[in-house]
Every structure is written in structure tokens, then in C-alpha cells.
Write a structure and sequence with these properties.
- The complex is a heterodimer.
- Chain A has helices at residues 3-6, 9-16, 64-77, 82-97, 123-137, and strands at 29-35, 40-49, 52-61, 144-145.
- In chain A, α3 (64-77) crosses α5 (123-137) and α4 (82-97) packs antiparallel against α5 (123-137).
- In chain A, a hairpin with a 4-residue loop joins β1 and β2 (40-49).
- In chain A, 39% of the residues lie in helices and 20% in strands.
- Chain A is an alpha+beta fold.
- Chain A has five helices and four strands; from the N terminus they run ααβββαααβ.
- Chain A has one domain (3-142): Sufe protein. Chain: A.
- Chain B is an alpha/beta fold.
- Chain B folds into two domains: 14-42 and 320-434, Aspartate Aminotransferase, domain 1; 62-317, Type I PLP-dependent aspartate aminotransferase-like (Major domain) (Aspartate Aminotransferase, domain 2), CATH 3.40.640.10.
- Chain B contains 15 helices and 17 strands.
- Chain B has helices spanning 14-21, 28-33, 60-73, 83-103, 117-132, 151-160, 177-183, 206-215, 235-238, 263-266, 303-319, 321-340, 367-376, 389-394, 411-428; strands spanning 41-42, 45-46, 48-49, 111-114, 138-142, 163-167, 188-194, 219-223, 242-246, 257-261, 279-282, 287-289, 345-348, 357-362, 379-380, 382-384, 400-404.
- Chain B has a seven-stranded mixed β-sheet, with helices on both faces. In chain B, strands 13-14-17-16 form a four-stranded antiparallel β-sheet, with helices on one face.
- In chain B, β1 and β2 (45-46) form a beta hairpin.
- The longest helix of chain B has 21 residues, at 83-103.
- The model of chain B is unreliable at 1-8 and 433-437 (pLDDT under 50).
- Classes of the chains: A alpha+beta, B alpha/beta.
- At the A-B interface, α2 of A face α13 of B.
């Protein structure tokens, strides 16, 4: 168990200074996510341009992992097509839950999340924003829970 | 022992005397040896277990009592004529008598074994409250209750049309007694109160609150889950009708708990669950229910759990609840003073009368991250909402970190906690936290 592997510099940076932290009004997609275990709560808004994410923003309270994950996710996905977004979702899910997973997409800064895998109780913190985004894109306005 | 000059019988050293004075006369070094788990390492570090409020660890005597029961005594209770069944029944009923003495109930007929506090409260909600409540009747609780002392009442309110009223707390985490008294009225049928708040540590002024409830003829239930391991409880001196607690928070096994209820009230309550042990006679036309307390113990009970709970009571009484209280209050004062010195740390719950619980938040460090960082150093605390979401909402925090202390904890463990918090601040806190401000 190596704390430095969980709280890498890029995670600490995105927690202290989250990117894309704010609302979009009006938005094309919106969803709310909860992690009842630790009280994480976040909201996501997305603006679509055809099948591309023109803008995506989030707000919420949460642990460093959940805030940094949402910040990294929004930074990575801006301008991506919905197909790419779904591909990233699958890759991140595998990265968080599979030992020695070799991503087939260039993950960039998102690769910093690979340290979370060693901390099973924290996987939900990292995946909350992704599930919330999927719900928003599916136009489900129901809150998402990690439980 | 490599010292040849030390006689095995020597006067205690100054350090030993100091340690004893700091712990209410309890010998913490010896006590720690009673708990096998306290000698293990977690993530390569000695375990500092500061999460007794969630579930306490078990002394060897409790573990042995359960093993001995299974190795030498076990059979079903109240059933067989064979020797084992008689011995098992004696062990189970012996534990009931220990519980009776522990809380000073008038009779073992008032001691019902259940799974835990939650089941005890649900039993009262469904068997006492539900048949009695009329639409417009009221149940009064407080803002600092555990979910287990909120949700069963919400359920029974939904079933009966009764209303749930909530007495507010103040910024220190104390119940607003005047507001509580104002919320009592002619429709108040039941008052359900924590003895000690699990999230804040507040000890409620039960004498005053119960006396007020009595003037309105309301029944009183006390959730004693957090109280029984820390202080002597006398249900008759409290003058409550129901008192619920769990074995696993008082150094006993999981899956066993107690509902104390006044015999006169129990006699009026219909059985809650049907099955074995709670009946005298069954025909397809009619079932005759058993006498108290068995009427409320359907099915084969948790016999080994009850035996273990009895051993836990013996253990607590051998240390002395008065000495435990003194020891834990000294730990609480030390922990409060130590944590207060940490910049950016705010203690949530500062009641004048508190159990040894310190709930806190740290600027820039989410409790969940703090929990992970401390765990890497072998320090176990609770993080989250503590099953008391309304308390979190009141203090406008999503979660807190909580160190809950036991007589087996040491000042050194509290120092390690403080060092771990400082480490978390350096790692995650605001950039200024790296300085010495």
C-alpha cells in the first residue's frame, strides 16, 4: 500500500485546483451523483454539439480522489465524440478494477488514477463522476448512487 | 528480559505510576494484553484502534467464552432433556441474569435478547408503538439520533398516521432542552432518545428529558448503544420504559443485543415475530404464546452470542465502570487538547458532557482521504456520516472523521493520530499548510 501511488502530484493538483468547476446553463445534459459511503455528491452539466461534448462542467463536494477524477475526466473529454466518451468509460472502469490493465487508448493524465486500484474502498470515489456522466448522457435525470 | 539486576517484584517505576494515574487507576499495559487484536500490525505498523464507537474489539475472555461454549456446552436451549441442552440453557439464562444485574433491571423477564440495538428499537416500534398509535399522535426524537433511532419511527408513523417531531440541537451538539419541552404535548405518545450521541459524543441530560416526558405520560425509549461500554447504567434510576443496546459495542460479540422493557408494558405487547421458543402450544386453531421474556424471542436464539455478552459484562465489571469512565475522560481531554492544536482542525461536537468521542474536520482534507492516510499508518478511525446524516446536515459538513476512544487506548496512540493528521495536511491540505503557521 503506497500512499504516494494514490495521491500522485496530478491528483493533488486537480483536487486543489479543479478544472471545469462550474455550471452550464442551459445544459443539454445534467445528472447528480452520490456516494453514500463517504458523502460525496457531485453534479455534472454537458453542452453537446452534434455527437460531440462541446463543454462539460461539474460542481460538488467530495474527497480528493472524487474531485480530481471529475476534474481529469472533464478535461479529457471536452471535444470528444460520444463514441470516444463511451470508450474512455470502459477503459477507466477496467483501469480501476483490473490488475495490470494495459489501456488501448492514450489515457494521458487519466492514467494517474491507476493507483486507486490498490485501494478497493476508494474505487467508487474515482468512478462516481464517470457513472454520473453516463447517466447525464443517457438523459436520465435520476440521481446516481454508487450503492 | 535481559536485565539481571531487576528483581521480578519491584516497585512500579515513575513512568508506570504516571501511566496509571493518567488512566483512572487502570493498568493499560496489562489491559492491552487482554485484547489479542491489539498486538497485530496493520500495513506494517502497530494497530492504533480508535474506532470503538463503530465496534469495539474483543478481550480474550469473550473470545474464550464463545469457544468454550461451542467446544463443551452447545445444544439447543429450552428443548432437550439431555445434559448439553440443560447446560446450554443454564449458560444462556445465566447471561440474561448478568445483563439484568448490569443495568439493574427488576427481573430477567424484562431482558429480551435481540440481534442488536437496531432490532430492539424496531421491536418496540412494531410491537409497542404500532398497535397504539392513532393518526395525529406524536413521537418525539432529537436531531442527534442515529438512523436506527429515526427510521423505525418514520416507518411506524407511515403505518399509523402518527407524526415524528424532532427536538433541535445547538452549535455545541447539545439538545435544546427548552425546545424539547415545548415539543412535548398531549399527543406525545413516545419519546426516543440517544443516551450518548454516536456522531458527537454528547451525553444527553436524560434525567431532565425523561422527567419532562413523564409529565406528559409519554413512554420513553433510550438508545444506549454508545453508553453501556462507557458508564454504569441503571434503568430503574433512569426511569425509562425501554433501553436498547448492542453487544458488539461493549466488547461482546456481534449479532447479540438487548432490549430492556418494563414488565408491565411487555405484558401488553403482542409478539413481534412468530416461531419456536415464543409459543407454549400450537394448534391450527389457536396458538398460546410463551411467558416473558421468551414471547419476544422467536426461533433459536444467538446462544453463543449471549454467553459472550455475559463474559463481556464480567470483563467490564472486573475493570469497574467508574474507573473506565475516569480513564476515558482523561483520554478525551488529552485527545481534545492535542487535536485542537492542529491548524485548520475543527472539532464537531463540543458539549459540556461528552463521552470519549472526537469528531472533527480538517481544512482541505476530506475525511475519507484522511481515513486512508491514517490507515496506511495503522490508525483506524471512522470517516463518513456515522449513520447520522441529519447531524452532518446541521453542521453543514458532508462527513467527519471520528476517533472514538476506549480504556485500552493510550496517549501515544493519540499522538500518532495527530501526527497522521499533520501528514494528511502536508499531502492534501491548502498549500500554506506545509508551513508552520
Amino acid at each position: 500500500m503506497d500512499l504516494q501511488d494514490l495521491y500522485r502530484d496530478v491528483i493533488v493538483d486537480h483536487n486543489r485546483n479543479p478544472r471545469n468547476f462550474g455550471r452550464i446553463d442551459p445544459a443539454d445534459a445534467h445528472a447528480e451523483g452520490f456516494n453514500p459511503l463517504c458523502g460525496d455528491h457531485l453534479q455534472l452539466w454537458a453542452k453537446l454539439d452534434g455527437d460531440r461534448i462541446a463543454d462539460v462542467q461539474f460542481e460538488g463536494k467530495g474527497c480528493a480522489i472524487s474531485v480530481a477524477s471529475a476534474s481529469l475526466m472533464t478535461e479529457t473529454l471536452k471535444g470528444r465524440s460520444l463514441t470516444e466518451v463511451h470508450d474512455y468509460f470502459k477503459q477507466i472502469h477496467a483501469l480501476l478494477t483490473t490488475d495490470d490493465y494495459k489501456p488501448t487508448l492514450p489515457l494521458g493524465k487519466l492514467a494517474a488514477l491507476s493507483g486507486v486500484r490498490e485501494f478497493p474502498s476508494r474505487v467508487k470515489c474515482a468512478s462516481l463522476c464517470w457513472h454520473t456522466l453516463m447517466a447525464a448522457l443517457d438523459r436520465q435525470n435520476k440521481p446516481v448512487s454508487t450503492e | 528480559m535481559n536485565s539481571s539486576v531487576d528483581s521480578p517484584i519491584t516497585a512500579p517505576t515513575t513512568a508506570q505510576l504516571q501511566a496509571q494515574a493518567q488512566s483512572g487507576g487502570l493498568d493499560v499495559v496489562r489491559i492491552r494484553k487482554d485484547f489479542p487484536i491489539l498486538s497485530r500490525q496493520i500495513n506494517g505498523k502497530p494497530l492504533a484502534y480508535l474506532d470503538s464507537g463503530a465496534s469495539s474489539q474483543k478481550p480474550r475472555s469473550v473470545i474464550d467464552a464463545e469457544s468454550h461454549y461451542y467446544e463443551q456446552i452447545h445444544a439447543n436451549v429450552h428443548r432437550g432433556v439431555h445434559s448439553l441442552s440443560q447446560w446450554a440453557t443454564e449458560a444462556y439464562e445465566g447471561a440474561r441474569e448478568k445483563v439484568r444485574g448490569f443495568i439493574n433491571a427488576a427481573s430477567t423477564r424484562e431482558i429480551i435478547f435481540v440481534r442488536g440495538t437496531t432490532e430492539a428499537i424496531n421491536l418496540v416500534a412494531q410491537s409497542y408503538a404500532r398497535p397504539r398509535l392513532q393518526p395525529g399522535d406524536e413521537i418525539l426524537i432529537t436531531w442527534l439520533e442515529h438512523h436506527a433511532n429515526i427510521v423505525p419511527w418514520q416507518m411506524v408513523c407511515e403505518q399509523t398516521g402518527a407524526k415524528l417531531k424532532v427536538a433541535p440541537i445547538d452549535e455545541r451538539g447539545e439538545v435544546d432542552v427548552a425546545a424539547f419541552e415545548n415539543l412535548l404535548g398531549p399527543r406525545t405518545r413516545l419519546v426516543a432518545l440517544a443516551h450518548i450521541s454516536n456522531a458527537l459524543g454528547t451525553v444527553l441530560p436524560l434525567q431532565r428529558l425523561i422527567a419532562a416526558a413523564r409529565t406528559h405520560n409519554a413512554a420513553v425509549l433510550i438508545d444506549g448503544a454508545q453508553a453501556v461500554p462507557h458508564m454504569a447504567v441503571d434503568v430503574r434510576a433512569l426511569d425509562c420504559d425501554f433501553y436498547a443496546f448492542s453487544g458488539h459495542k461493549m466488547y461482546g460479540p456481534t449479532g447479540i443485543g438487548v432490549l430492556y422493557a418494563r414488565e408491565a408494558i411487555l405484558k401488553t405487547m403482542p409478539p413481534w415475530q412468530g416461531g419456536g421458543d415464543m409459543i407454549l402450544q400450537v394448534t391450527f386453531d389457536k396458538t398460546t404464546y410463551n411467558t416473558l421474556p421468551y414471547r419476544f424471542e422467536a426461533g433459536t436464539p444467538n446462544i453463543a452470542g449471549a454467553v459472550g455478552l455475559g463474559a463481556a459484562i464480567d470483563y467490564l465489571q472486573s475493570l469497574g465502570l467508574a474507573r473506565i469512565a475516569v480513564c476515558e475522560q482523561q483520554l478525551l481531554r488529552y485527545a481534545t487538547a492535542t487535536l485542537e492544536k492542529i491548524p485548520g482542525l475543527r472539532i464537531i461536537g463540543t458539549a459540556a458532557e461528552k463521552a470519549a468521542v472526537v469528531s472533527f474536520i480538517v481544512d482541505g482534507v476530506h475525511p475519507h482521504d484522511l481515513g486512508t492516510i491514517l490507515d496506511a499508518d495503522g490508525i483506524a478511525i471512522r470517516t463518513g456520516h456515522h449513520c447520522a446524516m441529519p447531524v452532518m446536515e446541521f453542521f453543514n459538513v458532508p462527513a467527519t472523521a471520528r476517533a472514538s476512544l476506549s480504556f485500552h487506548n493510550t496517549r501515544e496512540e493519540i499522538d500518532r493520530l495527530a501526527a497522521g493528521i499533520e501528514k494528511a495536511r502536508r499531502l492534501l491540505g491548502p498549500p500554506t499548510a506545509t508551513g508552520t503557521n
